[in-house]
Specification:
Helix content is 0%, strand content 50%. It is mainly β and 136 residues long. The chain starts with a strand and ends with a strand.
Amino acid sequence: MAVEQEQGKVKKMIYSDEMGYSESAATTFVAMTGSPYYPLKGGRLIQVKLGVSGDAVTSLMENVTVKLTSPLWGVPLYVTCEGSNLRTLPTLPIPKGIQNCDLPVQTGSKITIEVMCRTGATPVTPRYQLIGVFEG
């Protein structure tokens, strides 16, 4: 959903977009589907939200980390989320990992997105979705 704010004669818009998705069980960084991501508009990345889910009672995902990098930033942005161990009943929702930020973005400038699950066990049937909230 986009929200427009009038600022003088220039309208600013806050919008969200799916930046990446993954079903990787990797315990080292691997690219998410959608990486590299290219912003829809120039402006600012102001928040990233990491959703973690599993679709089986045997699903296991713990300490999920997503790393975003861009040549415009000079430093990486990390967002993390803790899993809930095996998804046996009762299944409680996994809270989203949310990281506020204020980073410049430009159309045509890529953002590389990588994900890993740091766990002592092998991740099983994980699902990760990364949503970016932008202002531009």
